[in-house]
Each structure stands twice: as structure tokens, then as C-alpha cells.
Amino acid sequence: MGNVEGRVAGKVAFITGAARGQGRSHAIRLAEEGADIIAVDLCRNLDTVGYALSTPEDLEETARFVEKTGRRIVTAQADVREAGQLKEALDAGLAEFGRLDIVVAQAGVAAMKGQPPMQAWTDGINTNLVGTINAIQVALPHLTEGASIIATASAAALMDASNKPNPGADPGGMGYMVSKRMIAEYVHYLATELSPRGIRANVVHPTNCNTNMLQSEPMYRSFRPDLEHPERKDAEPVFYVQQAMKVPWVEPVDISNAVLWLASDEARFVTGMQLRVDAGGYLKWYDYHV
Fold it and tell me: Is residue 4 part of a domain?
């Protein structure tokens, strides 16, 4: 039977974007603490995203990692932009496990400088924002008291975007920020409605996280626009500007540990939280306020 102990023992988690990066890390970390996993990912590229997305083999590898913990996993290739595909994937997991306790809406892309520009905006909004809403809303009918919803936004959602010196120059990049900010607002109001039902909903805001999205030429170019083809060695010294602590990025497991806490009964009275795992990035931008 695998783990019978653990901080989420006996629970079932539905995780989008689980083939690699943060999503894979969340799946493994929750499984290590006793959860069974329903894992979905697109497993193909998008034309407007300038780095390779996950593959079917990546999703299979996530499954192997979860199984090594002794927990069970159901995987599906599904597009978070299509609620019907997510419902089908979730239904397959429910048929196997019979319950749902945790939703981790992790799937996201950065279509910065994507072409054509407005398609980059659309793909980013539909994947990050609509995809998060779809994942949560197909799960809502199956959640009961004690359940926990965790959505991944970004430190980008918290940045001051009032200064737009070059409107329209990068709709994909702006779409990323907008999608993450709207995730935060959506979950805030959702948490309010779910509170009397004993269901919690929270947002995690990572800073730079050491994944394929960060370690990609489009991201390097956003930090080093002065170079035509910047490499990791060019961008890494500039990555530090995002954080107050002296690190260029955090690791996926740092986000997973926050997700685990929010999913567990240790956080049973924590809801509507905008939880920053940002190495002090927010502190560089804002004065104190409640």
C-alpha cells in the first residue's frame, strides 16, 4: 500500500502541468507525504512559446517517480485550455481513487516575444488563467469539507505594471503578468465563497524558479534585452535583481514545500492567502502594508 503515514496521507491530488518542472516536483512531494496523484499535462509544444514544452515521456517519468514513493498515480495528456479534456482526465482518476482532496493548478507557459504577438497573448491567457479556472472548476463538484485548492501565480502578478513605456511591444509577456494577477484575484473571491463550505483556496507566488521556463532563451532575452542571443551565463547575474535575498532563483521543491503545507491539515485555517515564495522580491518593490 506504500506510505500510510505522511502529512497528506490518504488524500488524492489533481495536478496540472505535472510532466516536469514545478508540477512534477509537487506530485513527488505530495506522494512522498502519502497522497495519490492524478497528473495531467499537454505534452506537446505551442508555436508561440519559444522553448520546448514537456513530452509524453516526461509525464511517464513523473509517474515512475511517484510510484517509487509507493503511491499510485493516474496520468493523462490533456489541454488545460479545454475543460472537457480536464474533466475526462479527472473522471479517470476519480474512477481509480474514488475521491479528491487537493487541487494544484500549476500548468503555465510564458509566451514572451511570441509570434504572432496577439496569439502569444491568447495562448498565455488561455493556458495560465483559463486553464487554472478550468482545473479548479471541473474539480469543484467533487470537493468536500477539508479540501484544499492551490493555484500557482507568480511574483510577476505583484509587480507594479503602471509604467508601460512601450505599449503593445510584447503582448505575450504582458499576458503572462495579467494572467497571473487575475489568478490571484479569482482565487481570492473563490476562497470567500468556499470558506463556509470548509474548503480552502490559496495562491502561491514563486519568484524566478529553476525550471525549463526560466532556463530558456526568451527568458534570458527578457533579462538581457541588450543581447541578441543571450545565454544562461549572460542572464544569470541579472536574475538576482528579482530577489532581495542573494539568490538568482529558487528551486521547484521550495514551491512544493509551500504547496504541501497548504494542502495539509497543518494549514486547515489558512485560506485566501497570497503566499509569496519570492526570496524577498516583494520587499524590494513595496512599502509595508496589510
Answer: no
Q: In the numeric block, which cell numbers belong to residue 168?
A: 503593445
Rounded to a whole number of angstroms, the CA Rg of the chain reads: 18
- Known catalytic residue at 176: yes
What region does 201 belong to: left with phi over 0, alpha with psi -120 to 50, or beta? beta
Asked whether 203 and 274 are in contact (CB, 8 A), the reply is: yes
Strands 102-105 and 148-152: parallel
Indicate the residue type of 230: P
Task: List pLDDT tens digits, range 16-46.
Answer: 999 999 999 999 999 999 999 999 999 999 9
Residue 199 structural domain: 12-209+250-276
Residues 6+ apart with CB under 8 A from 196: none
Give the span between the Cα atoms of 72 and 35, in whole angstroms: 8
Order the strands of the 73-77 sheet from edge to edge. 73-77, 36-41, 12-16, 102-105, 148-152, 200-206, 274-277
What's at 194, amino acid-wise? L
Domain with 152 in it: what CATH number?
Answer: 3.40.50.720
Please pick, among 51, 176, 186, 220, the residue that the annotation labels catalytic.
176
